[in-house]
Structure formats: C-alpha cells, structure tokens
Design brief:
single chain, 627 residues, alpha+beta, eight-stranded mixed sheet, six-stranded mixed sheet, 22 helices
Length: 627
Amino acid sequence: MSTEGSHHPLLRNLPHAPGVYLMKDSAGSVRYVGKATDLRDRVRSYFGGSDSRAFVRLLDTWLDTVDFIVTASPKEALLLENTLIKKLKPRFNVQLRDDKNYVSLRIDPRHPWPRVEVVRRRPDDGAWYFGPYASASKLRDTLRLLHRFFQLRTCRDSVLFNRNRPCLQYQIGRCPAPCVDYIDKDTYRSHVDEARLFLQGRSDLLRDTLDRRMLEAAESLAFEEAARLRDQIQALDASLTPQAAITQHHDDLDAIGVARQDELVSFVLLEVRGGSIQALRTFPCFASELDEGLLLSDLLSRLYGDESTPPATLLLPSLPDNLDALQAAFDALADRRVRFLVPKRGERHKLLALAEHNAQAQLDGELQRRSTEELALRALQRRLHLTRQPRTIECYDISNLQNQHVVAARVRFTCGRPDPDGTRRYRVRTTGGQDDFGALREVMIRRAHQHRSNEEPLPDLIVIDGGKGQLAAALDGLRSVHPDYASAVTVVGLAKARTTGRDADDRSTRSTERLFLPGVKDPLPLRAHTPERYLLERLRDETHRSAIQYHRKVRGRAVLRSALEDIPGVGPARRHTLLRHFGSLQALRDASLKELEAAPGLSAPLAYAIFEHFHPGEADPPPGEQT
C-alpha cells in the first residue's frame, strides 16, 4: 500500500464533507470508526506518516476499504459515530463496558403504584433511572434508606394484585400497604416524588418539601402524620450529614480523571450533584494509543448519549479534540449549555485532582494484577515445561447428586483472569449414574467437535478437576474424535490434597495439591503459596462453583416437574407459569386455595386439584366436583 496520502486510491471517492468513515479489512469486518469535519482530509492524514499509533502504522497489512456516511453537520457525525461504535464494537476504538457491569435503580411513574427496581439496562421506556452504582454496598445503603424513609412497596405486581391482607413490611412500618388500599394514590404519589428527589441528590429541595408537608399536617390537626414527617426529616438529616457540600455553590458537575502508562489507560468519573459527591464510577482499564485530546473526545462520546445526559459542567484534565462538535452535541443532549472546564486552582481543581488520584490508584492496581498474573503464567509454563505461556486455560468439572442430573461446567481464564465469554455448561447425555470418567469423556468429545466445526479454537492448556483416572478419560475422549487432539493441546489433572496417613503423634498427614501429566507415573506436587498453585486453585474453584450452580438449577427444575407432573392438566407451560407467579415451589405448596384460584390461567377445578395434591382432604371440592 502506498503511503502517498494525496494520491492514495482509497481517497478517490471520499468527499470534502462532514461524516463518519469505517475502515474495513479484506473480510469486510469494521476495524475502526471515526468522525470527520472533512472526510477526505481526515482519511488522508492517516497516510501522511505523522500518526504514530500502532494500528495506523500497520494499515498496509489489513486495510482493504474505507466506507463513509455523509452527515449534515459535525454534530451529527459525532452522534452517528457514537452509535456505530456501540453497535459494531470495532477493535481499534475505545470501548466502555460500564452499562453492562453496573446496576441502576428504576422507577416507572406510569404504574399506579410505582416501586424501586434494580436493573442492568436502561432502555428508553419513559421510566426514571438513577445510577449506575459501581458499589453493591452503596446500592444496598440507598435501598435501605428508600424503604425506611419513603415507604414504597417492594413486592412484585403478581403479589401486589393478589393479596388480601398486608405483609410483614406493613407491620414494621416500611410499606403503606397499597395492595389492600390502605393508602390513596395521591399520597403514595407524594412518596414517589420525594424518593425521586432523594435519588437525584436534591436534599435541600426534599427537606423543603417535607417541611411544608409537616406544617400542612399540623395545621389540619393531623398530628400523628406531622410527627411522622418530623421524625423522617430528622432521620434524613442524620443520614445525609456525611454528604456535606464540598463546593460553595450547589453545582451539578462531573470530574473526569484519566491516568495512563504506555498504552494502558484508566478512567474515572466523579459525580457531584447539588455540591455534594454522589458517586465515583470506575471503568475497566483499556489499551489506547490516542493522544490525550482524541482520547478525551472518544471517552466523552462513549460516556454520554441516549442513556446518560451530561451535567451542566464537565471538569477535564485538558480540552478534547473536536470541541465544537462535542459542544453542539452535548448542548442538544442536555437541552442547555454544557461547560467544558480545565480548572487550575480552587475547589474544582481539587475535585479534578481527586478524580485523577482515583484513576491513578486504579491504574496502579491493574498494573499490579497484570504483573501477578504474568508471574503466575510464567511459573506455570516452567512447571509444566511448556513451549509457550498458557494464555488461554480451560478447566472442566463434573457435578451430580446420588447419580442423578449429571452436568459439567467449563470455565476459561484468559491471560490469568476469568473470561466470562468462555464459560459453558453441559447436560451429560450418554452417561448415567456415578460415572465421572464417562461424563468427562463425553464432554471432551463434544469439545473436540466444537473445534472441528470451527466454533472455538483449542486453548493452550486444559485442566481436569481430578486425578489420573479423570485425566485418562478426558484424553480418551479427545483421541476418539481424532488421534492428534490429545497432542494438540496440553491436558493435565488437578487433584486436591488428600490424607496420606498418620504421624508419630497420631495426627493425620496430608499430601499437597498435585498435577497429573499424561504418560508420567508420579504427579507433580504444587507447593503452597506459589503463584502457579494460586492460579490453578482459582480456576478450579470457579469451575466447581459454576458446575454446582448449574446442577442446582437443573435439579430445581426436575423437582418442580416431578412435584406437578402427576396432576392432570398441569403441563410444562403451566408449570412455568405457576413458578413465575409464586416465585418458588415452596410458595406454591404453601398457597391457599383462594390464592391458587387467583393465579393466572387456573380454573377453579384445576386450582382445587393442585391444592388437593399438596394438602389432601383439607378443602371441599368446587361445585359440580363432589363425588
């Protein structure tokens, strides 16, 4: 590929207009998406030799075509680029994975009795969303305060519309029992509005609202309600004391902290609402070769959009590139002027420094983790005499209970850390009873077929939870698909420590953890407190946990099926409906005949049949059913 920018053949069809360009490889996959005020000039700059990023230096090895989309303005190009990056996830663009990692709180104001829900996605459905919360403890604290002070219902709709008496939450003063109409909708709506103010961090406005309601209650001689509001105000004041204002003005702002070392970048967002710190959001570290201006431009484009509106002020370590386009786009998103500030002193500078300090701390932690994981992989390579580091490791484990519901699980570690995309769970089909060897053989056969059909490449190392027998069964499964599979990947067995005898003081002695290798008679001992043992134990424990979870899920379905399958008229679809309605088999067992009759899709005779199945002779049959 020629590097003469002005005459490059890929530039011929590019216009001098704002838009978005998509760089594709020979397979048609989009590797990079960018925005431009002038498409031809922007793409030409890649071939001028001044851009030192690694993927630009290697353009001649992978770039095949450059597609483009012309937009009416640079602002539209910015918004379109944001949408395309989220959809296509190009390899060389900055990706933020915050939305799928953290939870938010949701209140649907259109519901007659809104409640607070914990969700992971924030669709544009007209509901109110608060968060996301990076800390589980922060989320639990918020929910506890909500339920204590604002008394919103916690039950699902299936329970709300089917109760005939209030639950325990009402008895302890945490719910006003809308299920039995103990509260009118207008009063309940005021609770919802106050909860919204609390979640938005509008503590002053919330306190004014509660003060006004307390005075109104006192003037109308509703002294009990006035006393309850007084106690609520005092409790709220006590709970909000730690969130004292840290700015002289009641600002709404976000401080963006960025730290980097070589290509590794750490990014932190400090949220300040009403002059008080509300949350510190961290994002997974990522690799990027962009300079600071382009990096900030990309980060801001990914951070704010359809699901997150920028506040009135953004504190940044430097001004981003494409500032005019960002300004226009953010003003439109927020429906007001958004300020981009680079503070050099004062309170805002301290806030930005706090965000940058947190970003540096996160970067240091990531570098330490990577160093530890690299050390463990090198140690494991030496211990097993491998020709290269085992960057991808898969571990397999079998789980069953009394020879029933045999399942298997696979967990993958990539570069020494869990890789959720590599987790798989198997229902063992051809093996029955307590036959772990046969189950492992079947799973390895299925894994080899996955590789032969190009679904998944083989890992660098396969770890079997077990000893010599389990290892032999796994190798036999691989060889049965093709003789070369057993030699194409290193397979070892990881056996737990076991009791070996008793010492002179009659105390039991135990062996160390052991690794069994193919063709080697004696196992390799794994010394305690070594990085390779710690890595393998983490891998095995994750796999064991995954296998047990899946086994419990399969067993629970089987218990429900066996508990109901003898009742005429209760098939798979109705079993699923009953479980969703009541939440568990125990709740279904404990349900009264009246509650069963109120369940969706159940006639009175069928409800009686289910009740009679669990409680023989405790209820009279419905009319027409007497014998």
